[in-house]
Amino acid sequence: MAKSNSISPSVIKRLPRYYRFLGELQKQGVERISSRELSEKMKLTASQIRQDLNCFGGFGQQGYGYHVESLRSEIGRILGVDRNFETILIGAGNLGKAIAMHINFATRVCRLTGIFDMNPRLTGETVGNIPIRHTDEIADFCREHKPVVAVLCIPKANTQAIAEQLVELGIKAFWNFSHYDLSIDYEGIAVENVHLGDSLLTLTYGASHLIPPQENAE
Ligand code: NAI
User: Which pTM value belongs to this model?
Assistant: First the structure.
């Protein structure tokens, strides 16, 4: 079994997709799958799959394929899913509320325990069953609960100040939806910047090559 830090970044990038597909197979009651079947489902070549999954060793067997549950749990371990990191979310607006529900009720990869917003009118509202607290309470909450992941759903202009405070309070990883690029400022902190708009632009690029201009002209 490979140590996760010996796996190349390009393989790590593909792991969440394997994890998701294997989870779907598990739900369907599939116990094992060949690299050919998995490649058909995932639209990757069978040799790409074999190469990727050989990084962990011991899962693919000639004539047997992959044991779905073991492979998924090993990939989950590498991805840190089993750590169930304690997480807080900052900015309980439209996006923050949707993301909070997604974290606790859809992915369950991290454990969201605190939601904070600077708007006092939101204090005391709940999202799922988690109360929204005022940002004044962040420091005390972090000292008591020691969250390590923070989700930022606040405007770009407010992001740097809150990120600095959170790093001082022990946050080690940011899932950053604000449009401020945090990775510029922090070494030794894991940052995943998410821009849904970039994904939409990739879609419109694809669509613009498929749909002749006159078809969507007004
Ligand atoms: P919203 O206006 O509904 O919510 C923003 C919330 O953040 C408000 O409740 C506000 O009081 C709070 N807030 C602002 N500064 C804060 C601070 N320093 N500490 C705590 N709370 C603070 O806006 P929405 O739609 O939820 O979007 C939030 C941000 O995410 C926006 O800046 C938007 O540009 C960005 N966004 C990013 C996307 C992405 O794909 N990365 C997609 C959609 C929005």
Answer: 0.90
d(CA 200, CA 160): 26
Q: Smallest Cα–Cα separation from 52: which of 85, 23, 74?
A: 74
Q: Indicate which atom in ligand 1 lies nearest the CA of residue 194.
A: 41
Residue 175 near ligand 1, beta carbon < 6 Å: no
The finding on whether 195 has its CB within 6 A of some atom of ligand 1 is yes
Please, are residues 137 and 116 in contact by the beta-carbon 8 Å criterion? yes
Query: In Å, how far from its chain's centre is CA 82?
Result: 14
- Coil, strand or helix: which one is 34? coil
pLDDT reading at 1 higher than 60? no
| Beta carbon of 155 within 6 Å of any ligand 1 atom | yes
* Residue of 50, 55, 115, 113 whose CA lies nearest to 84: 113
Q: Tens of pLDDT along 7-48?
A: 788 888 899 999 999 999 999 999 999 888 999 989 989 888
Alpha carbon of 84 to ligand 1 centroid (Å) = 25
Tens-place pLDDT, residues 90-149: 999 999 999 999 998 777 789 999 999 999 999 999 999 999 999 999 999 999 999 999
State the angle between helix axes of 9-27 and 35-42 in degrees (0 to 180), rounded to the nearest 10. 100
Which residue out of 95, 101, 180 has the highest number of ligand 1 atoms within 8 Å of its CB and is therefore the one to mutate?
95
